[in-house]
Amino acid sequence: QLQLVESGGGLVQPGGSLRLSCAASGFTLDYSAVGWFRQAPGKEREGVSCISGDSRTTNYADSVKGRFTVSRDNAKNTVYLQMNSLKPEDTAVYYCAADHWVDCSRQITDDEFDDWGQGTQVTVSS
Length: 126
What we know:
By secondary structure, this protein is mainly beta.
């Protein structure tokens, strides 16, 4: 059964850091682009970051550039999102999604991805 599972969310103070993980089972992520999205209460889901299957291409939303870093370990079938200098406005449910055909050289949209995880809550608050 194809599955993506996010983990690593939690409560953190402003300025703190978290690392989210997106682990795949039932299929290999090796050839898939993986996107990170987030959805805050009352807001639409937005693309945060994307990484290509070979890790050569990444992109980030302007709101997280310089603070978030996406990476992957294909041997572990896992993609990571390192989030530093967190702000209250980063509070949201974070989702990972995978798709073989997505182009990570440009801003991603959620309708491009077929396979999704269940999400992990990130709360930034003092």
